[in-house]
Amino acid sequence: MPSKTMKAVGFYKYFPIEHSESLLDITLNKPAAVGSDLLVRVKAVSVNPVDVIVRAPKDTVEDKPKVIGWDVAGVVEQTGPDCKIFKPGDEVYYAGSYIRDGGNSEFHLVDERIVGKKPASLDYAEAAALPLTTITAWEALFDRLSIPTDTERNRGKSLLIIGAAGGVGSIAIQLAKWAGLTVIGTASRPESSEWILKMGADLTINHQQPLLPQLQSMGHEHVHYIFNLSSTDVYWNQMVESIAPQGRICGIVDASGPVNLTQLKFKSATFVWEMMFTRSIFQTEDQIEQHKLLNRVAEMVDAGIIQTTLTQRLEPFNAITMRRAHAIVESGSSIGKVVVEHI
Q1: Is a pLDDT exceeding 80 seen at residue 24?
Q2: What is the C-alpha to C-alpha distance for residues 330 and 182, in angstroms, rounded to an integer?
Q3: In the chain, is it the N or the C terminus that has fewer CB atoms within a 10 Å radius of its CB?
Q4: Collapsing DSSP states into helix, strand and coil, what is residue 263?
Q5: CATH number of 5-130+278-341
Q6: Other CB atoms within 10 A of residue 291 CB
């Protein structure tokens, strides 16, 4: 008889990652697919900064175990009665929803409209490295910054990615190069710069030094687009200086207080936020767009246009391994993506 329970990693209290109770091995009831949900047998999960932020110490105690994890690759075990896209046995990858249980478990429920077909050329760990960062990068570049996907229209246009060596930056570089942009990535260590260039960036500069003089020394009086993956507060004035007239800036890191949008007025420049969970949180009518973009990127991966950003594989799937993965991401110096595999 199939088991009615499943293993998972979760927590009740918000401790520093070094604490033995920061992440725990737990047993939960195995869920069932209803509506447009898929029940996915999880094969691999990756850890993102959002996991670290959600799990960070705070004076809260959960009544039931909190399970996080927003990057999954696996196999469809069961489909809800309203599912039209996937069937049992399909290999999938996705980021899931911020307002539902995460994927750090043996089985996971997810709405099929935000799920993509796993790239056939990747194993589960390689695929699990991609969904959240791919959705974030795609939406930031092509939805929020309104960058055309027509390479001819992007001829002579430049994109500055601040903090380009992480998961989002690694995929954003590749997507921006595919779109025909000149890509400049920032890093502060030789190994980070090397990784950025490996991902396809044209140039690298040091984000611990003033940005505009470095850009100008490389022949860029300004940049047409900026995608900031680091502190909005720290880089706000430098972004104002560096952006071209009528340029666009996108950020993903919360500001500690109001930013002075008036500084952008004379350039008629735009600042916009990207939050890849917006569609699933608000159940927007266009949730299916995340399914479409994940499928499109899967095709690009299989065509050799995009490569996985996986840099570290960890196993087995348990609380000890997951604490190790969180510590790596929390260090702030990781390159690419860290993935935990089920074995």
Answers
A1: yes
A2: 30
A3: N
A4: helix
A5: 3.90.180.10
A6: 20
